Amino acid sequence: MRFSGLRVLREGLTGNRGWQAHWRDASPKDAYDVVIIGGGGHGLSTAYYLAREHGITNVAVLEKGYLGGGNVGRNTTIVRANYFLPGNSEFYSHSLKLWEGLEQELNYNVMHSQRGQIVVFHSDGQRDAAIRRGNAMRNQGDDAELLSVAQLKKVLPYLDYAQARFPIYGGLLQRRAGTARHDAVAWGYARGASDRGVDLIQNCEVTGIDIEGGVVKGVQTSRGAIRAKKVAVIVAGRSSQVAAMAGMRLPIESHVLQAFVTEGLKPCIDHVVSFGMGHFYISQSDKGGLVFGGDLDMYASYAARGNLPLVEHVMEAGMTLMPMIGQAKVLRSWGGIMDMSPDGSPIIDRAPVEGLYLNCGWCYGGFKAVPGSGHCMAHLVATDRPHKAAERLRLDRFRTGRGLMDEEGTGAQHNLH
After folding, report:
1. Are 156 and 130 part of one and the same domain?
2. Do 225 and 283 reside in the same domain of the chain?
3. Which helix (H) or strand (E) covers residue 239, if one does?
4. Which of 308, 340, 372 is the last residue of a domain?
5. What stretches in the chain show pLDDT beneath 70?
């Protein structure tokens, strides 16, 4: 089934009776070449690229709930590539390029909107850091522009520029950044993978990983045992729990990150805006709601809900940056379980168990990484070699200390990244 303007018009005139299911709701087979644990954005994109790029279609994606029910549907939908350090910079640049052709490739409207992201700064030191980051981005081949206060006021007139505590000195703009519709991204990849023969298996919880002589042999699930030559663990905040089934202890802590949506408003925020001092970020959805978030809840948890002190903290940051937000009514909030690594950077690597592969440690960066993560993970699983864009995202950097990427300069503390 192909989507097109003509198809939409025809279905609208004929009662919408010709639409088909977007993917097959498959039942598990006894064995597969590759089993992917996790039916979120990263797992689904891995399955898609395994089939599309490498011709590996005897693949099962196992999801304990429903496809896209985890973090890919619980985020603030921001897409960007404004990272600074080697390793991160190449990877997110690669992912952004994939985003830019994703709708045409999938024949699916993921509502990718390159409205631009502006990170405001509040001191001479932060300005210097923004200049260094912008130069690094441009050297990487990505776009970056430094905006003065006068330029900012033309595009963001609603900010509080004269506040005594955090006066605004300027901003760093990446025009190619923006947002996308999180659910549509999951659905588009699911449809693309299913069309190429991948089995997408919902309500199938993995309860064990079978290993013999240091080699993975398959998984145990709530729907029976499944043999597999290779198993990929792509479960975000549950990474530590699933890896423990293989006898591994990962350098991961799971924390809750809350996000919020207001009532629908007339268009007023044209960009993604990030507060340099308050870890607050906001954009406006296509339905008019203001979508925003901030700091993690500062304790480890597997609960997909937050606490009220952090709600207050995020609201305070929003009011400090843009007092106008105080007039909006918050409709709902949610929490996503973030798999936080000690250096704030992801892991795409082979595990010590032969045939087992890890994809985790995305911290705040999981949604924007969906295309790049799946593309690089599929290359790793298919070839047993890291993709060039993910060469530094190694697991052993936490054992040796070489190649650590402390993007925010906060040290080896999971909850600060």
Report:
1. yes
2. no
3. helix 239-244
4. 340
5. none
Q: CATH code at 293? A: 3.30.9.10
Residue 14 lies in a domain: no
Q: Please tell me the total count of domains within the chain.
A: 2
On whether both 270 and 172 belong to a single domain, the answer is: yes
User: pLDDT value at position 180?
Assistant: 97
Q: What pLDDT score was predicted for residue 417?
A: 79
pLDDT of residue 162: 85
In the prediction, which pLDDT does 413 show? 83
Could you read off the pLDDT of 376-401 as tens digits, one per residue? 999 999 999 999 999 999 999 999 99
Provide the pairing of β-strand 347-350 with 356-360. antiparallel
DSSP string, 107-127: TS----B---EEEEE-SHHHH
d(CA 287, CA 319): 22
Strands 272-275 and 253-264: unpaired
Q: Are residues 125 and 242 in the same domain?
A: no
Find residue 40's DSSP bridge partners.
Answer: none
Phi-psi region of 321 (alpha: psi -120 to 50; beta: other; left: phi over 0): alpha
351 and 244 belong to one structural domain: yes
Helices (H), 291-396: 308-321, 370-383
The whole-angstrom separation of Cα 136 and Cα 119 is 15
Tokens of 319: 């009011």
| pLDDT at residue 53, rounded to an integer | 97
For the whole prediction, is pTM greater than 0.90?
yes
> Are the C-beta atoms of residues 41 and 189 closer than 8 Å to each other?
yes
For residues 204 and 290, membership in a common domain is answered with no
Can you list the alpha helix ranges (DSSP code H) found in 18-162? Answer: 41-54, 88-100, 102-106, 124-140, 149-155
pLDDT in tens, 187-240: 999 999 999 999 999 999 999 999 999 999 999 999 999 999 999 999 999 999
The C-alpha angle 101, 104, 105, rounded to 5 degrees, equals 80
| One domain for residues 271 and 400 | no
193 in the same domain as 172 = no
Each residue's pLDDT tens digit, 101-122: 999 999 999 999 999 999 999 9
What is the extent of the structural domain holding 291?
Answer: 112-177+253-340
